[in-house]
Every structure is written in structure tokens, then in C-alpha cells.
Amino acid sequence: MKKTFQRMCVLVCVGALGACATSSPDVISRQDAQVAAQVQDGVIITIRPVTVDGSQTGMGAAAGGVVGAMVGSGGSSIQREKTSLGILAGVAGAVAGNAIERMTTKEEAFEIIVQLRNGDRRAIVQAKGSETLLAGDAVIIVTSGNKVRVTRAPR
To answer: The pTM is what?
Structure first.
């Protein structure tokens, strides 16, 4: 029973980390739906691949610490050993959980430099989406609140 509960905790933690937010231009948040956005026309000057570093919200460390402490405290029949092992396993779990969160939230992205019609330039970093954008492409920059995305201009 105890091992089943521990496995369930691990699965819940992994699932929670997998559900973290994305910066994909193909995913629109509920708050941005049915909201008027500003649109600017431009042309891509350069585009290069970059990696957006993963986040460390503390959720991975907290989940890993709890799971580690539960797993570590279950191995001995002596209370002092249970406590010591639980603390050590909790710390190790927190470190592992933090690393897992960082790795699972890391995204491959593009830095896109766009020249607007008025001559201004904008640099936007966005995750890879379903569109293939290239230097010289006519694009639109869609700004909604503090979020920006670049998409190919309609022909």
C-alpha cells in the first residue's frame, strides 16, 4: 500500500511538471482569446535558433523533496535512522526535482529580428511553432497585453 502511494506521488509530480506553460506561438492562453490585439507589419531580417532556459518555480524541488522524504524514511525500523534517511532523501529529491523541472520546461526557440514598415526593429524570442519562418518573409507581429508572437503575413 505504501509503495503504491509513493509511486502515485511520483507520477503526480511528473505529470504536474509536464503540464507547465509553453511559449509556443501555436498555443494561445485563455486570457488572450477574444481580446483585440495590436498588429504590426514587418519583414524578418534575421532568425536564429536559441534555447529558452527552463524555469525553476520551486514546485519541482518541493515535489521532489516530499517524495524523497517519503521514500527515504520508509527503509529502516529504527526511528532515528528513518528520520536521518528521510531528511537526506528529501534533500536529494528536492535537488532532483529542481533539475527535472528545469529540464522539462526548457524550450527550443527562435530569436527573430523584424524590421517594421516605419523602420523600427523588434527582437522577439518565441518557441518553435508549426510555421517555418525565414529571413525575408513578410510577417505580422501580434501584441496582446505583454505577449508578442510573430506569424507569416497573409498573402
So the answer is: 0.57
pLDDT in tens, 19-40: 445 567 767 777 767 678 899 9
Residues 115-119: contacts with CB under 8 Å, at least 24 apart = 115/42, 115/43, 115/45, 116/40, 116/41, 116/42, 116/141, 117/40, 117/41, 117/42
CA of 89: how far to CAs of 62, 103, 109, in Å?
12, 21, 35
CB neighbour list of residue 107: distance below 8 Å, 6 or more residues apart: 22, 23, 24, 51, 52, 54, 127, 128
**Domains contained in the chain, CATH given:** 1-22+54-105 (no CATH), 36-53+107-155 (2.40.50.840)
Burial code (b: 16+ CB inside 10 Å, e: under 16) for 52-65 equals bebeeeebbbbbbb
Instruction: With both helix axes pointing from N to C terminus, report the angle between 2-18 and 59-72 in degrees, rounded to the nearest 10.
Output: 170
